[in-house]
């Protein structure tokens, strides 16, 4: 089964909630050894216990993606397992307010986490994958807002457009090392990131404009993610895979 990940080492950033937490369960049940990384150690510990209780293999790693020393330490800690075969670059934040109310701090925090964080983790992973000579798969969790725009999320949309280009330039330069780099572009999924906004009147309006008239469920992302991380997607690199209910 080319979708299986038995024996593979997977690192997932931002795994303490939302999509990352869900992806950790998914990839552990596909057979991977899953390293889950974020800042909140207590949440990661619960996740590790829950994966282990279900018969999977998981461990928690402290990580702040905005800090290059923390990124290097995280990969260093993981060396007792080895260099990851798969990295899911998922850590991300947003600040939702009108363009002219966004502060310099808002802009910096979103760009540092979503764009610089993605870059730091992806390049550190790639360096180590090159050294093993085994190659690997890097999946950057961008967003439909990396390709289209909406009001109120300027720094976020700008950061995710940067993640899309990061994906394409890395795919180009790393192909000769057998490292695949793809971006997953989810549409809206209700998580801690956006629960307040999506539950508001503005969220209802947004949903009414989605052709399928619904937000995504976490499980809508399962097949697309498995495709990108596994041998089933071995011919894909530099792709942007949108999962968005035909959102216009
Ligand atoms: P959540 O807020 O639920 O999760 C975000 C995760 O990122 C948390 O685990 C958080 O962990 C982690 N994180 C934030 N900052 C850092 C940091 N500096 N270092 C390490 N980890 C960090 O949001 P989602 O699950 O919704 O978002 C996950 C990804 O999916 C993001 O990249 C988001 O942009 C993307 N996405 C989400 C969509 C949605 O509709 N929900 C749609 C499209 C894309 P901790 O605080 O413990 O560090």
TrEMBL record:
It comes from the Bacteria. GO terms for molecular function: oxidoreductase activity, acting on the CH-OH group of donors, NAD or NADP as acceptor. InterPro entries: KR_dom (IPR057326), NAD(P)-bd_dom_sf (IPR036291), SDR_fam (IPR002347). Coiled coil: none annotated. One of its GO terms (biological process) is fatty acid elongation. Signal peptide: none annotated. It comes from Glaciimonas immobilis. This is NAD(P)-dependent dehydrogenase (Short-subunit alcohol dehydrogenase family). Belongs to the short-chain dehydrogenases/reductases (SDR) family. Residues 8-147 form the Ketoreductase domain.
């Amino acid at each position: 089964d080319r979708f299986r990940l038995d024996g593979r080492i997977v690192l997932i950033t931002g795994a303490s909630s939302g999509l990352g937490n869900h992806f950790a369960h998914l990839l552990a049940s596909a057979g991977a050894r899953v390293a889950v990384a974020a800042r909140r150690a207590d949440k990661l510990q619960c996740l590790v216990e829950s994966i282990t209780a279900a018969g999977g293999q998981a461990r928690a790693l402290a990580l702040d993606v905005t800090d290059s020393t923390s990124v290097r330490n995280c990969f260093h800690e993981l060396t007792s397992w080895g260099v990851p075969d798969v990295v899911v670059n998922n850590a991300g934040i947003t600040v939702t307010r009108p363009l002219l109310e966004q502060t310099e701090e808002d802009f910096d925090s979103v760009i540092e986490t979503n764009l610089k964080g993605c870059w730091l983790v992806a390049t550190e992973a790639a360096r180590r994958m090159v050294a093993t000579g085994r190659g690997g798969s890097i999946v950057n969790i961008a967003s439909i807002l990396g390709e289209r725009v909406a009001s109120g999320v300027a720094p976020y949309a700008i950061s995710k457009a940067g993640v899309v280009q990061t994906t394409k330039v890395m795919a180009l330069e790393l192909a000769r090392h057998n490292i695949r780099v793809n971006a997953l572009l989810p549409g809206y999924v209700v998580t801690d990131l956006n629960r307040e906004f999506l539950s508001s009147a503005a969220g209802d309006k947004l949903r009414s404009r989605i052709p399928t008239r619904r937000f995504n469920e976490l499980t809508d992302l399962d097949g697309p993610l498995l495709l990108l991380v596994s041998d089933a997607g071995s011919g894909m690199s530099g792709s942007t895979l949108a999962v968005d209910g035909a959102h216009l």
